[in-house]
Design goal:
Layout lengths: L8 H6 L23 E2 L6 E2 L6 E3 L5 E3 L25 E2 L8 E2 L21 H4 L12 E4 L2 E4 L10 E10 L2 E10 L5 E3 L6 E3 L36 H64 L7 H12 L18 E3 L5 E3 L6 E3 L13
Antiparallel strand pairs: 1-2, 3-4, 5-6, 7-8, 9-10, 11-12, 13-14, 14-15
Helix pairs in contact: 3-4
């Protein structure tokens, strides 16, 4: 962490409570004040009275923007017509009013707008291709002045320390970003203002810019790049595969035992239902036998049918025993004749005895 004495004056001024400004809500054609244009505290984002699609023109009214810096600018509605990007050799300023020619070295530039500066003749050699944003085509904008990033080891350099407001689990904190005009692979030491070679992974460091990976760990050593993909050993894949397979097998086994328990419960319910129905059937049959015996006690003449019911009476003593075999039942459309010539109707559970009568009329009957 850099000492507090190295903080730029802009950090102190950023905490000054100025007049309240409601920026970014003025529509096209409405009045605006160019004096309200500034960089937002903590993020250094350009602010103006006008909304995202307009800028504050010279006549103090919001006009449509004439260019854009980003491929996908913020604040535009869907299907809106976007302003064009600037061609090669031009740049779009923060106001995004009109494309302007690149600024030569030593000229003023807007904050951290390396793309506004004209590149050196050997820009291909000095350009940053690491993706860390160290320069644009070999040019940097430090302390609002265009410079070339061509300073070699041991040579005097220019450093710019900017404090940004960052957010973490414990709340806000200050993150200081230090930039210089050294060649790629070097950094500008803030203590000596000399270009120093970047440090390799594992070496001690105090700031991200000192590491060739631009990642100084909390332990004070240079670590891997922040975008380095993590690679795990093959044994990890084996363990994960075994765990997945074991989880699947365990799930299937658990489901099997749960379903078997449910099946046993359902089987017990069906068995209990069968027992109840069988007992109910036996009770009904016993009631039928009792009814038949009661009817035979009032039958005149003592039909041999009583002998048959007498035999059934002996069997009725075991009527409470569950039936182990199905008894054959005669059709409801059939009759059979007993030994004395009586005709028995077997169409219902209660047998009815019918005595045969002479078909011829008696002598006392008249037609």
């Amino acid at each position: 962490m850099l000492p507090a004495l190295l903080l730029p004056a802009a950090l102190v001024l950023s905490f000054w409570a100025g007049p309240a400004v409601r920026a970014g809500d003025v529509k096209f054609g409405d009045a605006c004040n160019r004096d309200h244009q500034k960089l937002q505290e903590g993020t250094y984002q350009f602010q103006t009275d006008c909304d995202a699609m307009t800028f504050c023109a010279d006549n103090s009214t919001c006009a449509h923007k004439g260019c854009r810096s980003d491929e996908f600018p913020f604040g535009y509605p869907k299907n809106a017509k976007l302003p064009n990007k600037c061609p090669k050799g031009f740049f779009c300023p923060d106001e995004e009013d009109l494309c302007q020619p690149l600024i030569p070295v030593g000229s003023p530039c807007q904050f951290n707008r390396d793309d506004e500066c004209e590149g050196p003749p050997n820009f291909k050699e000095l350009a940053d291709t690491s993706g860390f944003g160290l320069n644009v085509n070999g040019s940097v904008c430090l302390n609002n002045i265009c410079m070339w990033a061509n300073i070699t080891v041991g040579q005097p350099c220019v450093v710019q320390n900017t404090a940004y407001t960052a957010y973490g689990p414990d709340g806000e904190f200050i993150d200081i970003v230090s930039r210089g005009n050294c060649r790629v692979g070097l950094y500008c030491d803030a203590q000596t203002n000399l270009c120093v070679q970047n440090k390799a992974i594992g070496e001690t460091c105090d700031a991200d810019k000192e590491c060739e990976t631009y990642n100084c760990l909390d332990s004070g050593v240079c670590g891997d790049r922040a975008d380095t993909p993590r690679e795990v050993g093959k044994w990890v894949y084996v363990v994960v595969g075994v765990c997945i397979f074991g989880g699947m097998v365990g799930t299937l086994v658990g489901l099997y035992f749960i379903h078997r328990k449910d099946r046993n419960q359902e089987r017990e319910k069906r068995l209990q239902y069968w027992r109840e129905q069988n007992a109910f059937r036996q009770n009904i049959m016993q009631m039928q036998e009792t009814a038949r015996n009661s009817l035979m006690s009032f039958t005149p003449g003592g039909s041999p049918r009583s002998t048959m019911y007498g035999r059934d009476q002996v069997q009725s003593e075991d009527s409470q025993v569950p039936m182990l075999h199905a008894a054959s039942k005669s059709s409801a459309l059939r009759y059979y004749v007993s030994d004395d010539g009586s005709q028995i109707d077997d169409r219902s559970d209660e047998d009815l005895m019918m005595r045969r009568r002479d078909h011829g009329p008696s002598h006392g009957e008249r037609f």
